[in-house]
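dude i think i finally got it to work??
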Amino acid sequence: MDKYSEIRPYQEDEVLPALSRIAKHPLLTPITSYLFPAEEPDKMSQLISSLKSVEDFQDKVMFFAIKKIILDTSSSLSYAGLDQFKNDKKHLFISNHRDILLDSGIIQVIFHSNNIQTSEMAVGDNLITDPFIEDIARSNKMIRVERGKNVRELYHSSMLLSNYIRKRISGKESSVWIAQRNGRTKDGVDLTEQGLLKMLEMSGSGDFAKDFDDLSIVPISVSYEFEPCDLLKTKELYISRRRKYVKVPGEDLNSILAGIMQYKGNVHIHFSQPLSFQELSVLAKLEKNEKFKALAETIDKSIISSYQLWKNNYIAYDLLFSVDKYSTLYTLSEKNRFIDYVKYKLSDTEGDPKEMEEIFLSIYANPVLSKEKIF
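look at this
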């Protein structure tokens, strides 16, 4: 039996039935109307019905849609560090997590545009809310990450995921993308969860340096000029200061749609060099818990150091701390435009205005603070 059948992407014999279900689903019509308003609704259904593979679905549907989103909602897309992926070596891509869908989606489009094999992508099952979404996700190389279980179930699902990721990479079958943390960064501070690294080590041999070297970890930094869902994140952080934040039904879908539709300005993706065996060997000499802490900090340093800071970040920092430390990096008109943007975003919100503004500015200022701590 295929022990990974519940979490892995669809295989070739499963893709055709899934594409047939997607093509017939009533939700396809409104999705098509949004993404391709000039096309007849039936055209997308007919296209999907004609596809024969995961590669076809990614090439002719998913990547086409993501490219349109980038074109419609961003000023530019730049990237660096791709030269190292021109061979057949597989990697574990660990990136910061700012947008539910687009972080991994844009990375895959970059790979596809440069004739690099796309990776599989680990996605929380909280986002796979019904069979239609599951068909789309698993036809698009998505790995289902099970959450919200009791301790025993969580252990077994973590072991299964760890074994699957290691099998795919060490077997040279596919690279895998995973976010550095469970859920998006809400406050602009990108930190790798040690729990993620401990999950990855569950399938190892016990040789810390070799186990992580086998995974060939590549840190990726995703930088948006305008933070996806900045207002929604502000509201969540405001509520969280007062009580435990509980998501309402449909909130994740709303965040996905907001992230897709919101203007992003400039977008930059930086692919760092894989962590070396030498680096990992130094960490392996530390005490058990210190190893994972130090490995998380190594990944964080790579992500933060290559994070592209924008003028918005510097302006927010100076506004938040009432200084002009970075004033040479932006003009007065650029500062006033960002102030107007903040006022517009917060104009119809409930709560203490000063505190809401402080939280909003912190989301943009914290990447600057993170860089200051490193350099």
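The chain is about 55% helix and 10% strand.
im so relieved honestly
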